[in-house]
Structures are given as C-alpha cells and as structure tokens.
C-alpha cells in the first residue's frame, strides 16, 4: 500500500509539473497571439491607409489625364487630316503648305486662296507607305477655325472627293487617339441610329 501510495504521489507530482509547464506554454502562446493580433491590426491600418491614398492618387491621375487630353484636343482644334493623297504628289511643289493650299482650293472652289491660310502641313509620322499600301495622311493646321469647320462640313456632305481623275480624298478632323478610341466604342450605336 505504501508503495502504491508513493507511486501515486510521484505520478501526481509529475502530472502537476507537466500541467504547470503546459500552463506556462499556453500563457506564452497567448502573449504571442496578442502581439500578433496587435501587429496585424497595425499592418491592416497601414494597408487600408495606403489603399485610400492609392484611390486618391488614382482619381488625381484621372483628372490630370483628362486635363492633358483636353489640352491636346485644344491644341489640335484647327487641324484637319487629309487621307488618300498619294505619296510624292507634293514633290512638285517645294512647300507642303503651298501644296495643301492648292489641293484645298481644287477641292473647295467656293473658298478663296486668301481664306486658306495654312500655318503648318506635314505627313503623319509613320513609315513611308509602299506601293499598294494606303498613303500617309496629311495633317493641316489652318489659321482660321471657321474655314476649318466649313471644310469639315462640306467633307461630311460629300464624304469622298475626286481629285486628278479617280483619287478618293477624305478629310476629317484631327483628334487625339484616345478620343478616337472612345468614339469607336459608339460606332455600333451610331449605325443603329442612322
């Protein structure tokens, strides 16, 4: 009986020390978990703050981009693009502005040459087109906005101009690529409305 009792006391003491060790480990784990939770809250606060700042910056960037696009569109306000003029036609004249002035005078006899004040004219900055490819467009900056609008109005009515026999010339407003892309999204709806 004494042996049993001493054996039981030893086992109880061992269980007691094991329980105490386990309690200490659990307390350490609780402390660690509290620290982890605090750190996570801190990180979540920083992440949510960064997200808010990112959203604000994104809105600011959108506004800046819209302003830039508006400025680009305004700088192209007096510009037209002429499509379909074969490459090399302008070599007969030494001056692209003079060539375009003569071309527009041929296409629009109602406009006098004095009305066709051209500040600048040039081919688009693409590779020179090869035989059989579509020729590069000519960008024209007119000094008078009203003349530019009159040219566009007549160009919308006629759509294709015949020049030197069979060549099909088209004239459109010069717009930034982003605006053209936005307009393309509505092509289907525009066709339905016609």
TrEMBL record:
Belongs to the transposase 22 family. This is L1 transposable element RRM domain-containing protein. InterPro entries: L1_RRM_dom (IPR043636), Transposase_22 (IPR004244). It comes from Latimeria chalumnae (Coelacanth). The keyword Nucleotidyltransferase does not apply. Residues 77-165 form the L1 transposable element RRM domain. Keywords: Coiled coil. The keyword Mitochondrion does not apply. Residues 26-53 form a coiled coil.
């Amino acid at each position: 009986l004494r042996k049993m009792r001493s054996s039981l006391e030893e086992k109880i003491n061992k269980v007691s020390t094991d329980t105490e060790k386990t309690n200490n480990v659990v307390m350490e784990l609780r402390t660690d978990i509290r620290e982890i939770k605090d750190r996570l809250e801190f990180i979540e606060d920083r992440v949510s703050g960064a997200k808010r700042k990112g959203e604000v910056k994104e809105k600011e960037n959108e506004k800046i981009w819209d302003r830039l696009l508006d400025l680009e569109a305004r700088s192209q306000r007096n510009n037209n693009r002429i499509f379909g003029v074969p490459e090399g036609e302008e070599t007969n004249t030494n001056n692209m502005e003079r060539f375009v002035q003569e071309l527009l005078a041929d296409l629009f006899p109602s406009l006098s040459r004095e009305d066709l004040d051209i500040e600048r004219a040039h081919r688009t900055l693409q590779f020179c087109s090869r035989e059989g490819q579509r020729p590069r467009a000519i960008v024209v900056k007119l000094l008078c906005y009203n003349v530019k609008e009159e040219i566009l109005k007549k160009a919308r009515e006629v759509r294709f101009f015949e020049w030197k026999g069979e060549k099909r010339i088209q004239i459109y407003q010069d717009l930034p690529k982003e605006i053209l892309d936005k307009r393309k999204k509505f092509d289907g709806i525009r066709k339905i409305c016609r």
